[in-house]
Amino acid sequence: MGMININKPIKKYSFVSLCIIVVGLFLYQEFDASYKFEYLYSIEKKNVVTRIEYESLFEEATYFTTGYYCENEIPNSYVKPIYSGFTSGFQLVFFWKNDTCVFNHCYGIFEVVNPEGRFLFKKVMVDELMDMKNDTTGDYHYEIEKALF
What we know:
The protein is an alpha+beta fold and 149 residues long. It has helices at 7-32, 126-133; strands spanning 34-41, 48-55, 60-66, 78-82, 89-97, 100-105, 109-113, 119-123, 141-146. Helix content is 23%, strand content 40%. It has a four-stranded mixed β-sheet, with helices on one face. It is elongated.
């Protein structure tokens, strides 16, 4: 009597099962993603920045894009704060200069994708950002976020 080699069928089925799980997780992530929108208008209500809170199985992120945005997908043009560490966070003050949104920051790590002339992104000194933050004219919008993990 010979011995039966069961290793090959088990390896084959393990690989197929792993592929099914990976594809299933990808589909779940795509279909279960949630988007929450907040609209931040200029004082004269002419311009808007959309804050998008995105959450999926693999990622939680905040995106800022100019204009009124309500699609359930990541915009082509955005500023995205990157959270890195237990006490990470960001601070943004933005305002409109003509029809261009100017994002100012003094700390935080950001991914800036395709500004396309719709917005400018620049680093400023802390005292300059604090002056903008404490301005009472209503021209500036102030955003701060801190990550717990």
